Amino acid sequence: MKLSIKHVVIGGIIVTILFWMWLLMNMFPIPKGVRVNEQYYTYKKNIWGIYYISVESRLALLNVGTYRYLNDYDSKTFVVLDNNWAKDKNHVWYCYDVMDQADVASFHIDKSGLPKDKNHIYLPDDGLLYSYHPSQSSIDVESAEYFNRQNSWANRMLLRDKEYVYLNEEKVDVDRNTFKALGNSYWLTDKNYVYLLSWYDSDSKWKLEKVDSLQSPLDTLVAGSQYLRNGRDIIYMNKVILSDIDVKRFEDIGVGKCVVNNMLFLNGEQILKNRLNVDKARFYFYGHIAADGQHVFYHEHLLKGIDAASFRQINEETFEDKNYIYTIKESSWNEEDPFNRKKK
Predict the structure, then answer these.
(1) Cβ atoms of 242 and 248 closer than 8 Å
(2) Is the predicted pLDDT of residue 75 greater than 60, yes or no?
(3) pLDDT at position 168 over 90
(4) Going by C-beta distance under 8 Å and a sequence separation of 6 or more, which residues neighbour residue 60?
(5) Separation of alpha carbons 30 and 66, rounded Å
(6) What is the DSSP letter of 343?
(7) 293: alpha, beta or left, given left = phi > 0 and alpha = psi -120 to 50?
(8) What is the bridge-based pairing of β-strands 312-315 and 132-134?
(9) Over the range 276-290, which residues count as b (16 or more CB within 10 Å of their CB) and which as e?
């Protein structure tokens, strides 16, 4: 059967596409290999050698991540210690960088996840995880450990030995035996105080701030909340915003928003005071819309032309009153009125 020019052209295009897909998948720039250790996805090997890859799927390298082949390794003694550490008889690697200061024979990752050898523990530079350095302080290497796994990225700067707790390799004034994280948050407590672990861009370092004397009950709202109930006090981040009150209602409303009794707070500041009846209010759209039967607010802006008494939610982004159907605009975040309105 004679092929038409059209069929030849289409066939040529398909072959070209398949060739470039094969080239992209198998040669450049994405490496293909098998895991050195099945437990860890980061160290792999192929006919060209052993390489470190920062993402689990090699196709992800098209958008994020990096890879690099290791130099001067001994394949017979090469072992992967965790997703970011490996060693052979001559070298220790963090990702693909050789740690020249490490004592290879004694280097290991302890059961808390702390890298160490007989002389040093190894800590991330400047509170980040791009590179590590050997400790320069008086931390006891043998007993040193990570003890707080709730927010492991930030809390890799917090560790303890048999006597003290350290932040940025400096001793911190806390009770070593009772110091611990409060759930999945940046707050920590010991037997005496509530603390907040904060990142300061100006100093490029983490700092531990004493916020309040420890009381009971102690209650965070939801994971990631910036508000904390500490007995009769309410804390926002590193500041006590309400003191010595009888807390009857403590509720997360949305991003940065919290209700305490009959008060509404945004980023630690009371809003809509004497404007919104918080006791009767209903909150929608991640807490940005508030309605109390008398008024409807978007953020702190009063929405006019809405019948507040009949205003109700139909679904996540659709509302109605007796006169209109309201839908959330795509650009609502930048506007004072979030709604498109359609008369019934």
Answers:
(1) no
(2) yes
(3) no
(4) none
(5) 10
(6) E
(7) left
(8) unpaired
(9) bebeebebbbebbbb
DSSP secondary structure, 215-279, as one string: -SSEEE-STT-SEEEETTEEEETTEEEE-S-----EEEEETTEEEETTEEEETTEEESTTTS-TT
End-to-end CA distance of the chain: give it in Å, rounded. 65
pLDDT digits (tens, 9 = 90+) for 192-244: 999 999 888 888 788 999 999 999 999 887 767 899 999 999 999 999 999 99
Q: Could you give the CA distance from residue 210 to residue 197 in angstroms, rounded to a whole number? A: 9
- Local structure of residue 154 (DSSP, 8 states): H
> DSSP 3-state helix, strand, coil percentages of the chain (rounded to 5)?
10, 35, 50
Q: pTM for this one?
A: 0.79
pLDDT in tens, 269-302: 999 999 999 999 999 999 999 999 999 999 999 9
Residue 152: HSE in the Cβ half-sphere, 13 Å Cα cutoff = 7
Owner of token pair 């009846």 = 277
Six-digit token pair at 182?
């409060």
Q: Identity (one letter) of the amino acid at 262? A: N
**Residue 10 parent element (H or E):** helix 5-26
Residues 6+ positions from 172 with CB-CB distance below 8 Å? 164, 165, 166, 208
Mark out the alpha helices in 27-130 (DSSP H runs).
Answer: none
Closest alpha carbon to 273 in 287, 261, 283, 286? 261
Omega prior to 124 cis, within 30 of 0: no
Residue 221 CA to residue 308 CA, distance in Å, equals 29
Take residue 52 and report the two structure tokens written for it: 């470190």
